[in-house]
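Appendix B. Extra example for self-study. Work through it before the problem class; the solution is given directly after the inputs so you can check yourself.
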Amino acid sequence: VTKKILIADDEPNIVTALEFLLQRNGYEVMIARNGEAALKLVEAERPDLVLLDVMMPLKSGYEVCQRIRERAEWRHIRIIMLTAKGRDVEMSKGLSIGADLYITKPFSTQELVAKINALLGAASS
Amino acid sequence: VVVYSHRLEQKSRELEAATAELRQANERLKELDRMKDDFVSMVTHELRTPLTSIRAFSEILRQDPNVELSQRKKFLDIITKETERLTRLINQVLDLSKIESGRAEWHESLVDMKEVIGDSVAGMGQVFEERGIRVELSLADGLPRVPGDVDRIIQVLLNLLSNAAKFCDVAGGRIEVALSQSDGQVRVDVRDNGPGVSSEDQAVIFEKFRQAGDVLTSRPQGTGLGLPISRHIVEHHGGRLWVESEAGRGACFSFTLPFRRVAQAA
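Solution. Structure tokens for the complete assembly:
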């Protein structure tokens, strides 16, 4: 079964890059441009993994992450936080609220794909 | 003893006042520190964002030889645009920090405002044409020249004109530029027929990295530093820069420049 990934980011060019990259690697991709849309898509589509930008309109990535972690039936969803705020404080905050990984922008696309593959491979086994 | 106790009381009052002052100064310093932190954090974010696209698309193009030609072109365009965005941001951050720290060099001369407005509008001609924007000028004749840095004044005008162009009505964009004088100052108005600036946004658009606009759709292009820089420049000349607008009814950005410099502002 094709795994579903939700990209939640308000920066159109970054979304374009991630969408292309993930589709090329065989994933089904959905897109949300703000935190509220991201939560709605999680509810409707049950993605296997969410790529979550921290600074988004309406609801921050932190908030979306917390909401996802509150629901037991969403516990299997892997969450990778992506952020352009490169601070250690931010990173520990992201991990403490339940993100699986915290990646700083700019990132290596190869590394990102490898990490996604690893997370989703581990989740299915 | 009475005299002594009286003195003691007075000393204690003085001390209290001094403590209160110190406390206030401390609060101000903390606030400044916080603002500096916010600024650094915003700059970091704004620098990393275009870098992310540039790196991602470069790697995609390098690693994937099968990207179709039309897509290849689109990705390269994004890389170019993001590089320009990064360059603009770096220049503006450096410019703003120079102005704020008082290290900017100002080259003062007597400036013919009618002439520089004409030059600035002409310089934006291609942008206006591409977006189908009609520009109307109503510039008073024979005004005295104003003392100021001509390049900096042009920078303000270009910033206001490009903002106006960015937010103009898509169908039938119109910008009016007016030059007038009153109370020993020239006044320039740049009026557009865009969506206007809501009263909440009016307070924040002069702050660094704060932009108006509908966050639900996409953010407007720009660094969010143009207006703060422009305001600094105008205030350096002893003038004022402000906006008047009602949401939905266009915006009018105005600035004044005094004919005579009273005191050197920071």
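Self-check: The longest helix of chain B spans residues 2-63. If your reasoning did not lead you there, revisit section 3.
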